[in-house]
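thread from #wetlab-drylab

HS: before we spend reagent money on co-crystallization trials with calcium ion, can we at least see a predicted complex? here's what I'd submit
DV: go for it
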Amino acid sequence: MTDPTLDPALRSWVESANGHPDFPIQNLPLGVFSPPGGAPRAGVAIGEMVLDLAAAGLALPAPLNAFLAEGAAARRALRARVSALLAHGATPHPEWLHAQREVTLHLPAQIGDYTDFYAGIHHAVAAGKLFRPDNPLLPNYKHLPVGYHGRASSIVPSGAPVRRPNGQRAGAEGPSFGPAQRLDYELELGVFIGPGNALGEPIPIASAAAHIAGFCLLNDWSARDIQAWEYQPLGPFLGKSFATTISPWIVTPEALAPFRIPQAPRPEGDPRPLPYLWDEADQAAGALALELEVWLLTPGMRAAGLAPHRVAASDARHLYFTPAQMVAHHTSNGCNLRPGDLLGTGTISGPERAAYGSLLESTAGGREPLRLPGGETRAFLEDGDEVVLTARARREGFVPIGFGPCAGVVLPAA
Ligand code: CA
């Protein structure tokens, strides 16, 4: 690893960055923020602060789409400049900084299209078993990254409240319309697209990673009762499209380089992907080691002064397809991906219940509610509940980095 911006000895004159669990100087994620009374602008998270890139003479467009379009060389050049400006030993410029707690964080890019995959195989098996106990995975599952086209307009940044949807639910007396009773979260990674491709020109798997601008956390809020009634035969619609929350910082491939791992070997008997999805370099280093957690805080816990409770601990290594395979598959028919488009990986569950990334799985479809500190239980989310996703990358010899929270509170239905 020869990138000097990843040197574990590197420290910043921004004191809160040194030892910060998410945003040490080795991370430098990109986002868009407004200072109090100011217009949206591009920034970099550093410790508890945000660096205003324009103030530092490094203005980027906000939203960041045009910069994401430039690809890895532009990102690396900016990263080197920002790292040098913020490093211990450089002239401190506190006037370039704003406290994160005082700014408004926006979506980092204007998201034109959003596609959600289903590449967490443990989720696919656990969720599939609830509907098809003997045949949880459909025959296509191991051959291609299954996905559906989601709704970009309802993607919101961390901290935005999420209103419980109304919708049509099945019932013994026929369907009824009302507030979803089985509201759930899904623990996912988001993948921002960089340069992208022209219509009709697929991105080969070998160059797919070059089209990934970075990663965020993604909560694919899901109304299971609406979903279960509507999804056949064309897939999710109103059970998903009411809201998707993402963490507002784009964590770049450069920052995540130390935490790349080989794609887990497929179990004996699983098919090898077709050649357009197979690349040796992608198999060798295209997966990510990222600890992922889900935290729940209910109004009752908040009133009792209790801390958020961890309801799941998983890892991005459980994905059955790599992000590059998702890009290659998505464009294999000629479909164009554009700068700032967002992919969701699908719910990333591990093999055991403690690693299940949705309540659908961890409560066995609501039949075995979670027990929370203070004595409450939850089969599905109730009004006032706050769900927070977190991610942390660690590896011996490197400074750990995180993503910042991906949080949302459930509001009562309209
Ligand atoms: Ca999903």
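DV: The pocket of calcium ion is lined by residues 116, 186, 188, 220, 344, 346-347 (CB under 6 Å).
HS: ok that's useful, forwarding to the group
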